[in-house]
Amino acid sequence: MADDREAGSGLAQRVVDPLRRFVHDEAAGGVVLLMATVAALVWANSPAAAGYEGLWNFRLTVGAGPVAVTEDLRHWVNDGLMALFFFVVGLEIKRELVVGELRDRRAAALPALAALGGVLLPALLFLLVVGGGPEGRGWGIPLATDIAFAVGVLAVLGSRIPAGVKLFLLSVAIVDDIIAVGIIAVVYTDALDGGWLLAAAGALVVVAVMRWAGVASVAAYVPVGLFIWYATLHSGVHATIAGVVLGLMTPARPVDGRGVLDSLQHNLHPITAFTVVPLFALANAGVDLRGGALGDAVGSQVAWGVLVGLLVGKVVGIGGVTWLALRLRIGTLPTGMPMRLVWGVAALAGIGFTVSLFIADLAYTDPVLSTHAKVGIFAASAVAAALGSGLLIGLTRRSATAAPGPARTAE
Prior knowledge:
This protein has 15 helices and two strands. By secondary structure, the chain is mostly helical. The protein has one domain: Up-down Bundle (Na+/H+ antiporter like fold). It has a two-stranded antiparallel sheet. Helix 1 packs across helix 5, helix 1 (2-44) runs parallel beside helix 10 (260-284) and helix 5 runs antiparallel to helix 6 (163-186). The longest helix has 43 residues, at 2-44. The two termini are 41 Å apart.
């Protein structure tokens, strides 16, 4: 029996420790991300604004001859470094699906349904505000939640917020990411090149064969992974999807006694949280708001579509679907988390930021529409952070003074 307890304790540690590190890195990374965003905005609106654009428009060639890739620095960040970010996203999705909160169908049902509500309603509201045409291509912008910023807000609120709130927010945000990645792959792609797509698929088969053969060395997979990224880049599917797929193919359970996924996540997540994502913000958040651009955005349907989608869509979509699911006895909330706190989580989910900025650049080639969308993202994320914090603090105090009762039913 002692051995059973030790085995159970070991399993719990393997699940809890990576989650604890993930939350810590996301919270601290959120602070760095905020600093990079402020720096980008100040730089882009300063007398040195020309230098900002000049830097990110500088073209860099990597490789030689027929395999050379030439992109400006902004696209090297968006197409190259962000593939590493999405690889880590894929790792976290895989871990959650195999050994984490989403492995249990009943536990996964509620955050999955809540996330679906928090995707469908924002997209619908965006289209209702904006309509069709070129502006309507941005319907994917208000779909995803920025985990780094949202968890950062929870870290600021401290221990007064129940642990179940963080767990529910992470679960919803991860399902959000799964849906957003699928939309990027299907909707925001260029014309497909069948040859390169077939080459990428063939290389993925090579990865599967290497796994089947028991190849455990990460270094052996690096050249194949780089080729998959290169082939995906030329296929018309956004190159970052290669990162997600490779992350999902990483074994979540130990291989020859070694936790490959946990090791990769432990080593790579700080790099993406403290380097890749802040660089992305620095390259993409520098919106020039001078010359009446801010006033134009205030009157823009795109900006309002993003704002309404992220704020109203997320709150009503996530909160409403969760309430209905609990009424129908579909799924359960984490222990110690009453339904009333779901509204605070739903508001925090309106912090779209990183993935919203990413989709905005994919959706709009017109710099005016892109600027309007980014202003909407900034405004919505700021309001969502303030609203979510206020709701969680106020409703947590109410929970503390209320009589104890069931925490897993709709209230």
